[in-house]
Amino acid sequence: MFIDEMKQAADSYGLVLSETQLGQFNRYYELLVEWNKIMNLTAITEPQEVAVKHMIDSLTAYDASLFTEGATVIDVGTGAGFPGLPLKIFAPGIKLTLMDSLNKRVRFLQTVVDELGLQDVACVHARAEEGARNKAYREQFDIAVSRAVARLPILAEYCLPFVRRGGHFLALKGMQYQEEEQEAVKAIKVMGGSETQTRPVKLPGLEDVRAVIDITKGMPTPKAYPRKAGTPAKNPL
């Protein structure tokens, strides 16, 4: 059963989940598998794999000093809700915005939020480049998170414009994280990023290399950024 796999994966990673949280993760899993039959949300559906590669992987972004009560968090290009929804289940006091460019995924996310009874979650249909030009979102967040969306130079242009000065952008990255960090030095600087810290991550039972890259926003993002939709990916800084 998924709930058992989730508990075991959390224990192995050193996280303590309440019965309520385990129930929410379980319902999230059920909805993910159910909706995945009618739309492409994930290639991973086995309980143990979802527990480790989606849920716990998302929680690697958690840092108690950042995810405090009332912290505003945006998950850019959230897809099926990773890492934003697992972080919200684990740290229910955060105020979360889930942003995705595909409306049917946003409908799925809203269903999960409603079914799990999560408070202070907004599901927004927008491309990152457009969302970051909207005054309601630009430089409004303590934390931006993103996982499996694009390489870091592109991702920095998508995400840093959402972060307030003094806030953080957390990028969840795979085995090429060191290469990506080197590639992204210019983009991070242009977007107003000041300091970058990398925290290598080991998931329970997996040998692959992962890391969370934590970029502090030191200066406002220049008005010219992000460039119009599609440009960052075609022509990275």
UniProtKB/TrEMBL annotation:
Annotated Gene Ontology cellular component terms: cytosol
Residues annotated to bind S-adenosyl-L-methionine: G77, F82, A128, E129, R147
EC number(s) from the headed UniProt entry: 2.1.1.-
GO MF terms, alphabetically ordered: rRNA (guanine-N7-)-methyltransferase activity
Entry keyword set: Cytoplasm, Methyltransferase, rRNA processing, S-adenosyl-L-methionine, Transferase
Subcellular location: Cytoplasm
Function per UniProt: Specifically methylates the N7 position of a guanine in 16S rRNA.
HAMAP family hit by this protein: 16SrRNA_methyltr_G
Name this protein carries in UniProt: Ribosomal RNA small subunit methyltransferase G
Lineage: Bacteria, Bacillati, Bacillota, Negativicutes, Selenomonadales
Gene from which this protein is expressed: rsmG
